[in-house]
Request: fold
Amino acid sequence: MKQKFAALVLGGIFLCLTGCSSDAPEKEKTAPAEDLPTLTIMTHDSFSLSKEVLAAFEKAINARVKILKSGDAGEALNKAILSKNNPLADVFYGVDNTFLSRAVKADIFVPYAPKGIEQVEVGLKLDPENRLIPMDYGDVCLNYDIKWFKDKNMIPPAMLEDLLKPAYKGLVVVENPATSSPGLAFLLATVSRFGEQGYLEFWEKLVANEVLVKNGWKEAYWGEFSAASQGSRPIVVSYASSPAAEVFFAEVKPEQAPTDVVIENGAAFRQVEFAGIIKGTKQIKIAQKAMDFMLSNTFQEDIPLQMFVFPASKTANLPDLFKAHARITQEPARLDPELINTQREAWIRQWTDTVLQ
Reply:
């Protein structure tokens, strides 16, 4: 949910210089804040961490942390690749599994196995050379308005195929995969579910059933989804953690989230986000400490209520609200990262020709 609900709050940290008298034993001194080096983290526009964790981050690496927001995940990666001969940052956060192969082939990351990597879920580790380290994950899936379906005495969908039934005509809003990260993830879920030979037929039938397409998540969720706006569509493509965000941001916290999700039967695509040290950094030791910190529980436990995704570390505790309302599937849609890399643009082009023409 990072590009949706979280807002980055940046704060400064000032370290004091410990003085000592001439006859006292010399103590280890910390450099004044103005003398500290700066570690730059290039990331997507939705990256967020709390003020307290930012301060702990800077203390742990004894450096300032500069967050360089660079567009969506794909745009940010493009900038990192294009600047490989003169890197703009020391660390990159936010390569996801839809761009993993492209990032690896660009050869812009330094192998490094951070402290705590043994606690990362095995299924999230997609780069055996540790150039890109899993940091968080979440499932993109259908969300639906519980009250809308209850009031209409209708059963909500349980799988992608249900969207093609006459009863769901005109009820669904999705995002354009060419302009939206969750839109692309949902497209990949349909490729996984119906195969490269069958996914376009699914979309043709969905168009016939009056699916609505919006360019981005914000326009779809806040503009058309009946549970979050004055919109008339009770089904939207969002995240399996969106119900937790609905509760978190509610003025009066409900016991039950107003929305639920469709995550079984291969209906959800798992997005995994990675971080890595950018080749050419002149601060390799600080960058390594930064990677260590990002797998620490301090950082990992900040992720759920900042970016509304799950931490990659198995030792990180989830907040109670996340435990109660965020969901994750045991059977996500799966596609090989290399297949995604080679076919992504073709699938988007075919989708565009089928759905928007």
